[in-house]
């Protein structure tokens, strides 16, 4: 290997190392493993009170594959307990599970006794491909079909 080729290889390795460090922000968790946090709020536009028995479910999904179910990487469940939107959420995921080439999104739903009340109809991308680590989700009301 000549000197020029050696310098190119060294430059490429240094660049890859810098890109790798930038691609996954790290913060310490209890086990010393790097974790990422995604946070934001969940709300809806309808002017109606939420049933105290309702439950809010927020999930971080890998939405990279179009023809397959989206794996859940993290989720948070919150009982409404009489509280009203907006609901704050924070999802933590092991940074090693995030691939900068893939796409990730946050999804939310509000249900009561197994009946879906609200869901997001917009994809809220996070973490990779220029997306940040926060998303404020606005859900739409689910109208039950007559039986």
Summarize the structure.
It is built from 1 helix and 8 strands, in the order H-E-E-E-E-E-E-E-E. The chain has 147 residues and is mainly beta. It starts with a helix and ends in a 6-residue tail after the last strand.
Verbal overview:
Helices cover 14% and strands 38% of the residues. The protein is globular. The longest helix has 21 residues, at 3-23. The N and C termini lie far apart (75 Å). Strands 1, 2, 3, 4, 5, 6, 7 and 8 form an 8-stranded mixed β-sheet that branches. The model is unreliable at 1-30 (pLDDT under 50). It has 147 residues and is mainly beta. It contains 1 helix and 8 strands, in the order αββββββββ.
Which helices and strands appear, and what pairs or packs with what?
Layout: H1 3-23, E1 35-44, E2 55-62, E3 72-79, E4 87-94, E5 104-112, E6 115-119, E7 124-126, E8 137-141
Parallel strand pairs: 1-8
Antiparallel strand pairs: 1-4, 2-3, 2-5, 5-6, 5-7, 6-8
Main sheet overview? 8 strands, mixed
Radius of gyration: 20 Å
**Low-pLDDT residue intervals, each spanning 5 or more residues:** 1-30
Helix content: 10-25%
Oligomeric organization of the protein chains: single chain
State the secondary-structure class: mainly beta
So how many helices? Answer: 1
């Amino acid at each position: 290997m000549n000197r020029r080729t050696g310098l190119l290889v060294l430059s490429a390795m240094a660049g890859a190392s810098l890109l790798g460090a930038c691609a996954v922000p790290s913060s310490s968790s209890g086990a010393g493993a790097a974790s990422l946090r995604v946070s934001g709020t969940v709300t809806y536009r309808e002017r109606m009170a939420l049933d105290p028995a309702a439950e809010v479910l927020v999930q971080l999904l890998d939405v990279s594959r179009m023809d397959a179910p989206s794996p859940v990487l993290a989720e948070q469940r919150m009982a409404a307990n009489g509280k009203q939107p907006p609901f704050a959420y924070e999802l933590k995921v092991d940074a090693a599970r995030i691939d900068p080439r893939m796409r990730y999104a946050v999804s939310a739903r509000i249900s009561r006794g197994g009946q879906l009340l609200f869901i997001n109809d917009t994809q809220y991308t996070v973490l990779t491909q220029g997306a940040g680590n926060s998303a404020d989700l606005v859900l739409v009301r689910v109208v039950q079909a007559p039986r």
